[in-house]
Amino acid sequence: MSAVLNSPQPTLETPAAPIEHTPFTRPVILCVAFINGFVIMSIELLGGRVLAPYFGSSVYVWGSIISVFMLSLSLGYLWGGRLSLRRPGPKVFASFFVIAAALCLPIIFLADGVMTAIFVAVEDPRYGSLLTALLLYFLPICVMGMVSPYSVRLLVSSQAHSGGVAGMLYFFSTLGSALGTLATSFYFVLWFNINTVMWGCVVALLLCASAVMWTCRRPAQTMPDSGNTVTMPEAGK
Amino acid sequence: MNWQVKKTVLLLASVVIALLVFATTIPQTHAQREIIHEERSQYRDVVVTEFNNQRCMLFNVHRGDMNQTCVDLRDPKRLVFNYTKMSFAGLLLNPDPRRILVAGLGGGTIPMAMRDLFPAATIDVLEVDQAVLNVAQEFFDFREDDAMQAHVVDARVFIKRAGLRGEQYDYIVLDAFSDEYIPEHLLSKEFLEEVRAILTPDGVVVANTFSSSRLYDYESVTYQAVFGEFYNFKLPGSGNRLILATKSELPSPGDLRAPARELYDALEPYGVNLLEYPPRLTTRPDWDTSTRVLTDQYSPANLLN
Question: What kind and span of H or E run contains B149?
């Protein structure tokens, strides 16, 4: 926490609004936050099924998965917030989705190999499942966690509105998580193979990246702090 | 502003109170039974009740009578449930098991009967919940010894490891299911392949399955995919269907009468009438054979039940 608070404050070169606001930017960012939340919980729910053939579906398997997801998200929030301090812009934001999508691929292709190795090496299914969850899910979920604070930064253009913007983003991403949990557990597992749903998540993340690249632009850099967009200095502590 | 906060607090408080009132008025469905013990569990608390000289183990007392196991206190040897009795039909295919694996302990009635019947056999019992084992030992006289061991472990994990170690069993009972939640990783084709891998050439798998829901079709085609033709076993008046599957070819129905006659006397004290079983065994599919096979990738068993 203190690492973030002690980081260099944004300088005057960083405009208060890191993207040019058009009628599309706000809905697009809220929408990708929603999809991000949806995908996170969809992957978490499938995680139980991915691990069950090797470690069972005992309560500690869910304990491992939920702990790893929470840990990944917490560190993702921290690092995403940190990254947003330095020249925040749509390219970095879009790259989160591409990287997260790429990091989901090992869950599809390497899970069985990883779990076979761990199953042989670790006798205790509690630590076997914890280690598997860490190896498979830590990196992708961490990157997905970075989306939340970063999207707050992209949408906030004044300190006075920051709470409202953050609230709105939490609303959409957590609503996405709720629906992701529901849709996956009620319907997706009934309609599709696990890996088909995982591919759906990968495609959804890539669509998020392209939507961001399509609609969000950096503002023209000619007048860094002309009075139009800049209303107040950020993070005035 | 202040008024709004007050309003919100009032609203929340009334919702909480309403929920509490609702919770306390839910009728207690097991009022007529005497609860003699409640065991705290990592999963679902285990309750032991006594009624009408029957002692039962229950998992879910709030949704009505969901007995896992019952014993008749006047005649503890006599098995109470039909499906428990039916599981001994496996003896028609392998009358003298040496290494027995029972997945799902309950009150331990099946392994204890096997222990009595086959003193020379070694028995491994798998139970995922320590609380069930505690209750079975304390209230249902389940005793471990050198040849019979209970393992607190997920059946899939134990069976996968047994396969890696190259261990084999000649009598495998799969009974790790309750009505309310089905372990979906114990229904898939991959799991049954792991079970088949630890089966001796003359061994038999006895699986207690679901007969009344859509799962009937799914389970049937999945067993078919792994074991080929199997014996389907239902009794009139019982909601259960048992699957008897072997690695090698099934014996013909005529061959089952001799072991039934031989074992009849030994099983009679348990309430098992083995002689009426052979005519009830059939290989004729009475399920939709175009149903999708359950796999680790696709096993929505709880949604199909």
Answer: strand B148-152
Contacts of B154 in chain A (CB under 8 A): 55-58, 125
Which tens digits make up the pLDDT trace of B62-88?
655 566 789 999 998 899 888 899 999
User: Do residue B57 and residue B201 come from a single domain?
Assistant: no
Q: Which residues in chain B have Cβ-Cβ distances shorter than 8 Å to A56?
A: 128, 153-157, 183, 185
Query: CA of A128: which chain B residue's CA is closest?
Result: B157
User: In terms of CA atoms, which chain A residue is nearest residue B181?
Assistant: A57
Q: What are the C-alpha distances in Å from B262 to residues B204, B242, B268, B273?
A: 18, 22, 11, 12
Q: What share of chain A is helix, strand, coil (3-state, %, to 5)?
A: 75, 0, 25
Which of A165-169, B51-55, B120-124, B265-269 is least confident? Answer: B51-55
Q: Could you read off the pLDDT of A148-163 as tens digits, one per residue?
A: 999 999 999 888 999 9
Nearest CA in chain A to B163: A120
Segment B117-132 mean pLDDT: 95
Band (pLDDT 50/70/90 cuts) for residue A24 is confident
Q: With CB atoms and an 8 Å threshold, state whether A194 touches B154.
A: no
Full residue range of the structural domain in which residue A189 is found? 27-215
For residue range A123-142, list pLDDT tens digits in order.
999 999 999 999 999 999 99
The pTM (predicted TM-score) of the whole model is 0.84
Q: Which domain holds residue B62?
A: 34-72
Residue B300 and residue A120: Cβ atoms within 8 Å?
A: no
Of A125, A186, A189, the CB nearest to B154: A125
Report the gap between the CA of A120 and the closest CA in chain B (Å): 8
Please spell the DSSP secondary structure of B87-109, one letter per residue: GGGGGGT-SS-SEEEEE--TTSH
User: What letters, b where the CB count within 10 A reaches 16 and e where it falls short, cover B55-83?
Assistant: bbbbbbbeeeebbbbbbeeeeeeebbbbb
Chain B nearest C-alpha distance from A63 (Å): 12
Provide the pLDDT for residue A223: 45
Q: What are the catalytic residues of B?
A: 175
CATH number at residue A59: 1.20.1250.20
Q: Are B91 and B226 in the same domain?
A: yes
pLDDT surpasses 60 at B132: yes
Of A55, A58, A193, the CB nearest to B297: A193
**Cβ–Cβ of B297/A194 closer than 8 Å?**
yes
